[in-house]
Amino acid sequence: MNVEPKPIPAGETTRSAEERIAARDWPALATELDDYGCAIIDSLLTPEECAEIAALYPHEEHFRSHIHMARHGFGKGEYRYFRYPLPDLIVGLRTALYPRLAPIANAWNERMGVDARYPQSHADFLKLCHEAGQTRPTPLLLQYVPGDFNCLHQDLYGDLAFPLQVAVLLSEPGRDFTGGEFVLTEQRPRMQSRAEVVPLRQGDAVAFAVHNRPVNGSRGVYRVNLRHGVSRLRSGRRHTLGIIFHDAK
Predict the structure, then answer these.
(1) CATH superfamily of 13-243
(2) How much is the average pLDDT of 38-53?
(3) In this structure, are residues 141 and 67 in contact, taking their beta carbons and an 8 Å threshold?
(4) What is the pTM assigned to this prediction?
(5) Neighbours of 69 (CB within 10 A)
(6) Which InterPro entries does this entry report, sorted A to Z (predicted)?
(7) Tens digit of pLDDT for each residue in 164-181?
(8) Average pLDDT over residues 126-147
(9) Least confident of 50-59, 184-193, 238-247
(10) First CA to last CA across the chain, in angstroms?
(11) Among 6, 31, 109, 182, which is disulfide-ready with 114 (CB 3.0 to 4.6 Å)?
């Protein structure tokens, strides 16, 4: 029997998200993203917050669509896209993370010779998305059970795509599930692909490149193409919150 979860607290949520995110060492996180295409933000959510978000999964009123990966060749598992209005905690995280990531995204585009620049506030960026016809919210909640996995992919959803996104692990490895590692791969020109397995605990987040990132080479800056996925779950149940900053068509 599904039990209705407690509502995620409102009011102080956005300020709390801003405060906890502002306290992080963002120069160090930016260096990690520059060097490896991903960076761990440890203990971004409390265990209680993780449980509150994961408990939303069975309640369809919070979501606009329900995707079974196997039907689309995405892997095996399922996820749900949140509908607007988003839960307050997710709004707070999306709003507070974006201005920390926007300068990194702009620096990457400058290095890669990409003209696009991103405004400092997430509200201004969403306005651009909506003017481009991208109006559907993209934050999502993923659920895996034994045997499930997520194929390597990119979350683009439209012509206007913010080049960084964040995933938060809501379950505790070893206690709630085994297997199910977050995997990131880089396809490098004229070289073998590089894989990165990102170790996360409950409440940890990983910020990572959606599509391309710049890399310094012997002949200047070149682009690498990134994809991300999740390895096969061995046992238990795994929930993940995906925070994507652009909306979808």
Answers:
(1) q2cbj1_9rhob like domain (2.60.120.620)
(2) 96
(3) no
(4) 0.91
(5) 19
(6) DUF2086 (IPR018655)
(7) 999 999 999 999 999 999
(8) 97
(9) 184-193
(10) 35
(11) 109
Residue at 106: amino acid letter = N
Paired residues of 188 in beta bridges: none
Rounded to the nearest 5°, which phi and psi values hold at 228? -135, 160
Locate 36 and state its tokens. Answer: 């490896």
Which of 10-14, 120-124, 234-238 bottoms out in mean pLDDT, i.e. has the lowest? 10-14
Dist CA 28 CA 207 (whole Å): 13
d(CA 77, CA 91): 25
d(CA 180, CA 164): 22
Domain boundaries in the chain?
13-243
Backbone angles phi, psi at 219, to 5 degrees: -110, 25
233-236 and 177-179: which strand pairing? antiparallel
Contact 5, 52 (CB under 8 A): yes
- Length of the chain (residues): 249
Q: Which residues lie closer than 8 Å to 110 by C-beta, 6 or more apart?
A: none
Q: What is the Cα–Cα distance from 221 to 236, expressed in whole angstroms?
A: 43
